[in-house]
């Protein structure tokens, strides 16, 4: 890896393109390096993972609305939309939109956490949509798709490692626009000068505030990454037509860093692969076993362990016996999904699902009482309003612990951690102290996810939604991804029974 110094330059510097971060990203994207076998294997896993959570979301309101919008834009050859027959194609940017919402809705796919947060699997819908649309025109195949996805992951991981957005209340999808544009550039074999313009346009149009993840969290949380993917497709299209972007987009004196991030005195060190170096960023990312914000994953595992080992904490009278629960954890966890956010909505039984999956007090209470987590049942209004749950929930707070913050940001895999220490004080004076560093499903956790677990996750979430034959068909196609011919890329979708989708009508809009 090469570490690039990135800082703000006055216009009088006339910063050369070759010295701009967007150009360096473009050079990485344009480098035709082979994809390592273990990276190919993980790309397959994440294509399966995305399809799992999208399938489970097919009749949820945000997906129904996004799908209706996409289907109002039929196109030939076009791209597929999750749920509908593969022959029913739409314009690729609208496929990226609909499929991106489906993938993100349940907050249940992969994650990478460092200086910033991210869900790198959000890169897959826009890259796949373009691959399906241009498979014939540009002789694209499964191997080309794998290369594009590997680039999207690499660029997002590298940006997330180096540049904090949330510190300045900028939504994390500002890293997704550039990474998706870069991934599409790799897919299409575009030259650096075209990818450079697309990266700049995608960044410029995807910087937005974090209010989408604050207070009463709305359905836009699922739409925000899909919008970034849609914008990336459009940005690449414009760049291919010779249209240019604001330059330098990162380093300019009126650019993103100067006015939206650390300001004129900022200095970032961004690692990117050198020439000929494989793109391996996807191997540093991790998926979710539970449908909740990633920083809750390990704590759900701890809660279900306590449920099993200390049943007295989960029984009917436990809420009276428990005086307080304090979760000592990292800065990110405390301020984003903990009591440090100062969001009263995180303790409100009537809060939206989007809010509850960003409330570790709620999540820990339910997981402790139930001994597990379910992507639907754990969020129902009835479950959230249960009196003993509300009583326990409001006794749970978080506190930032400098050591957990340090471990969160550690580059040493033996130290890096996304968990915390839980201290439970009981009415009889007993204090129970337990801690967990990593989710069980994390690559360094107690039960790391491998192909078997990704397949099982898909089968579990698709059960009752897709026919068994469709489940088997998709898994066969996905696991042959590197060998797929261009015409087979359209099979990388799931087709639901017509009656399932017909029962989920969407209100009419403009389209």
UniProtKB/TrEMBL annotation:
MmgE/PrpD N-terminal domain mapped to chain residues: 20-267
All residue ranges annotated as the MmgE/PrpD C-terminal domain in the record: 290-479
Family per similarity comment: Belongs to the PrpD family.
Protein's name according to its UniProt entry: MmgE/PrpD family protein
């Amino acid at each position: 890896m090469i570490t690039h110094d990135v800082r703000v330059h006055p216009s009088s510097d006339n910063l050369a393109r070759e010295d701009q971060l967007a150009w360096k990203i473009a050079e990485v994207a344009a480098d035709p390096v082979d994809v390592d076998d273990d990276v190919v294997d993980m790309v397959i896993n994440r294509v399966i993972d995305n399809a799992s959570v999208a399938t489970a979301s097919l009749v949820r309101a945000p997906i129904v609305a996004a799908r209706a919008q996409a289907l109002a834009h039929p196109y030939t050859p076009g791209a597929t939309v999750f749920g509908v027959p593969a022959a029913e194609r739409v314009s690729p940017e609208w496929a990226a939109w609909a499929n991106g919402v489906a993938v993100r809705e349940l907050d249940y796919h992969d994650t990478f956490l460092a200086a910033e947060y991210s869900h790198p699997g959000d890169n897959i819908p826009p890259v796949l949509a373009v691959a399906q649309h241009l498979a014939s025109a540009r002789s694209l195949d499964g191997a080309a798709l794998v290369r594009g996805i590997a680039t999207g992951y690499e660029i997002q991981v590298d940006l997330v490692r180096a540049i904090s957005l949330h510190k300045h209340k900028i939504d994390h999808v500002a890293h997704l626009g550039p990474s998706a544009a870069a991934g599409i550039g790799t897919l299409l074999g575009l030259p650096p000068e075209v990818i450079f313009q697309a990266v700049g346009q995608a960044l410029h149009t995807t910087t937005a505030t974090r209010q989408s993840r604050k207070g009463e969290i709305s359905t836009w949380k699922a739409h925000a990454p899909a919008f970034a993917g849609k914008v990336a497709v459009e940005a690449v299209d414009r760049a291919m037509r010779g249209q240019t972007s604001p330059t330098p987009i990162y380093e300019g004196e009126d650019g993103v860093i100067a006015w939206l991030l650390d300001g004129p005195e900022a200095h970032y060190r961004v690692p990117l692969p050198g020439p000929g170096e494989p793109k391996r960023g996807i191997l540093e990312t991790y998926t979710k076993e539970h449908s909740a914000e990633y920083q809750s994953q390990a704590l759900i595992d701890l809660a279900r362990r306590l449920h099993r080992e200390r049943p007295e904490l989960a029984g009917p009278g436990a809420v009276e016996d428990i005086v307080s629960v304090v979760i000592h954890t990292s800065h990110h966890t405390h301020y984003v999904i903990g009591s440090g956010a100062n969001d009263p909505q995180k303790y409100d039984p009537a809060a939206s699902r989007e809010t509850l999956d960003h409330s570790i007090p709620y999540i820990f209470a339910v997981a402790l009482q139930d001994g597990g987590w379910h992507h639907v049942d754990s969020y129902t209004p009835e479950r959230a309003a249960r009196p003993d749950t509300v009583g326990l929930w409001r006794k749970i707070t978080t506190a930032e612990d400098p050591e957990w913050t340090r471990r969160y940001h550690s580059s040493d895999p033996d130290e890096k951690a996304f968990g915390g220490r839980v201290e439970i004080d009981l009415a009889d004076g007993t204090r129970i102290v337990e801690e967990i560093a990593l989710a069980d499903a994390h690559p360094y956790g107690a039960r790391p996810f491998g192909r078997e677990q990704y397949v099982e996750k898909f089968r579990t979430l698709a059960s009752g939604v897709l026919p068994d034959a469709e489940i088997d068909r998709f898994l066969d196609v996905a696991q042959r991804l590197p060998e797929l011919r261009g015409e087979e890329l359209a099979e990388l979708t799931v087709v639901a029974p017509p009656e399932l989708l017909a029962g989920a009508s969407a209100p009419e809009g403009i389209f």
